[in-house]
Amino acid sequence: MGYITSAALEETGYVVLDSYNKPLDPKEWLDIEYVDWKSSGDTRFAPLASAFGEIECNGFWNHKPPRTDKDGVWIPAQTELAPTLTERALEPGANVGRCRIIELQPNSYGDCLYNLHQDDNNRLNPDGTGWVVRGFFNLTDDTESYFVLRHNRTDPEGEVRIALPAGAQLIIDTQRLWHAATHLGTEPRYCLITSWESGPELDAYIEKYHGVNHVESVPISQETLDAGQAEQARRDAARAAYYAAKGQAELAAQTAMSEA
């Protein structure tokens, strides 16, 4: 049967919408409660909607009963502090799963490449229903920062880098694309992330805000590209060596116990 998907995302896996140009009160993301939750760098998250309305960020499939990233439960203590952000998440009229604000500390392009990841949005998602994608609404004016998208985590061919000024609005199939942000500022970056179910409501929202699936990449130097690739490779190798050594140590311990 297959999933219901958005035609606008079919070619590239992302769309960039019109920039949000209405006033925002930073208190909506500064005065809200955050939890320590590491994802793609030095991060914290402030959930607006979670699996059961608790202030936590775990995947819906890690709860009892386990389920897919849909039908999130809004958290009144959080949404009351962030009414405009809640309204923006609800505006498409699409089913919302997790909805949260990310706080990302400054990092480098090399950090970003190492932290590239794919999301597991559609675990337990029933066939024949809408494919879950994510909206990213940049809240702070991170004019030197950019979102990195790749089809292959370690291959820069076809990499797209999307600028992140205040008001930038992206919708991405984050289960399809490897993604992370390069944040070159001196202060934390804040962004609203919403899981939406694909379908006619989301399609109409993309059309309303003139979604485009090709944008010019933020230019970076060849030196930066090469250094980023080298840093990703170095840290990947270090991580592989760590887990190999850990596995060997555990095997040795098991062998010693069996021989005791």
Keywords, separated by commas or semicolons:
2 domains; eight-stranded antiparallel β-sheet
What's the arrangement of secondary structure elements?
Elements: H1 7-10, E1 14-16, H2 27-30, E2 35-36, E3 43-50, E4 73-74, H3 76-79, H4 83-90, E5 96-104, H5 109-115, E6 132-138, E7 142-150, E8 160-164, E9 169-172, E10 178-182, E11 189-197, H6 200-208, H7 222-259
Antiparallel strand pairs: 1-9, 2-3, 3-4, 3-5, 5-11, 6-9, 6-11, 7-8, 7-10
Helix pairs in contact: 5-7
Question: How would you summarize this macromolecular structure in one to three sentences?
Answer:
This protein is α+β, with helices and mostly antiparallel strands and 260 residues long. The chain contains seven helices and eleven strands.
SSE string, helices as H and strands as E = HEHEEEHHEHEEEEEEHH
* Count of the separate structural domains: 2
What is the β-strand count?
11
**In the CATH hierarchy, what is the superfamily of the largest domain?**
B-lactam Antibiotic, Isopenicillin N Synthase, Chain
How many helices does DSSP assign?
Answer: 7
Per DSSP, what share of the residues sits in E-state strands of 2 or more residues?
15-25%
Query: Could you say what the CATH architecture of the largest domain is?
Result: Sandwich
Gyration radius over CA: 20 Å
Q: What is the oligomer described by this structure?
A: single chain
CATH fold label of the largest domain: Jelly Rolls
Roughly what is the average pLDDT, rounded to an integer? 94
Q: What percent of the residues sit in helical stretches (DSSP H or I)?
A: 25-40%
CATH class of the largest domain: Mainly Beta
Give the overall shape: globular
Structural class: alpha+beta
Low-confidence residue ranges? none
Largest sheet: 8 strands, antiparallel
Distance between the termini: 56 Å
